[in-house]
């Protein structure tokens, strides 16, 4: 059974641990899950190309993550950042650890030598062996920016800042008027992305941020169409439980695009495949069991990734929901 999964960073990678475990336990011999990962959070700092979601997935599945923080390397040290700060050089809001720096140095060196991001990711994964086939959504540069009120403009103008700055520096507290995925209209899916969707027996959309993780992936040319066309069932899991996001600020992202923070509203935002959307099945938490989405099978199961067992059960429920609805 060939499975393709869409994922962002922290929520996505946690879920992928469960999906990888479910496949290993229930489908031994199946090819590794293909992961299509958001790269809209990527940024350049100190001339280094940084891919937060790819790295979170790679470190989490490869056993190198700081599980408590949910991002970055375990046993991290911060000497470089402290030294930069001693020069008065920021940004102080981005956690650039010493171990993590090595990843960014290798990536930037390879990109500068002309390798596409997908090849660089594959090379980094030779060390981490995440047990999935990890693909960036695109080799082309896409960067999410957030349109906010310009604090320096007395006339009430607006300006755009990088998503990471809005998220990490301002904790998503500045009202977002719009997300602009710079470059997404011209971005082509990375090699393997469309094929993996077309050839899949099941497509799973992780409980990742529906706007800045999954929404960005869906914005890449051809990916929505590939989901519409694939013979595989498409099943997604709600990142919203009981009207609130878990870990993170997805509510701030949803309100910016005019979607209520509820499992039902996010399911309707994704929409049923029969009506121009992307879903065949939508998994919501048991406390959201009343949710309905036209044309979509809604399944209510526990959706809290509290431990490995709970996450495995979520992945099994997603696989079962997808396969039960197969057309
Ligand atoms: P990011 O790129 O690091 O922000 O991570 P993702 O986009 O992959 O995932 C963020 C989303 O994961 C948030 O919207 C959270 O609501 C969701 N999330 C985190 N933990 C859980 C959980 O235990 N259960 C569910 N259902 N969603 C979760
Ligand atoms: Ca992210």
Draw up the topology in text.
Blueprint: E1 3-7, H1 10-26, E2 34-37, E3 43-45, E4 48-50, H2 52-62, H3 79-86, H4 98-112, H5 117-128, E5 133-136, E6 143-149, E7 158-162, H6 163-169, E8 178-182, H7 193-198, E9 202-205, H8 214-219, H9 223-229, E10 234-237, E11 240-241, E12 244-245, H10 250-256, H11 263-270, E13 281-284, E14 297-300, H12 308-324
Parallel strand pairs: 1-2, 1-9, 2-5, 9-10, 10-13, 13-14
Antiparallel strand pairs: 3-4, 6-7, 6-8, 11-12
The structure holds guanosine-5'-diphosphate and calcium ion.
Radius of gyration: 19 Å
Shape: globular
Helix proportion:
25-40%
**What is the subunit organization of this protein?**
single chain
Low-confidence region ranges: none
Spatial strand sequence of the major β-sheet? 5-2-1-9-10-13-14
Please tally the β strands and state the result: 14
Describe the structure.
The protein has a domain at 3-41 and 131-139 and 186-324: Rossmann fold (3-Layer(aba) Sandwich). It is 37% helix and 17% strand. It is built from twelve helices and 14 strands. The chain has helices at 10-26, 52-62, 79-86, 98-112, 117-128, 163-169, 193-198, 214-219, 223-229, 250-256, 263-270, 308-324; strands at 3-7, 34-37, 43-45, 48-50, 133-136, 143-149, 158-162, 178-182, 202-205, 234-237, 240-241, 244-245, 281-284, 297-300. Helix 1 (10-26) packs parallel to helix 2 (52-62), helix 2 (52-62) packs parallel to helix 5 (117-128) and helix 4 crosses helix 5. The chain is globular. The mean pLDDT is 96. It binds guanosine-5'-diphosphate and calcium ion (CA). Calcium ion (CA) binds next to helix 2.
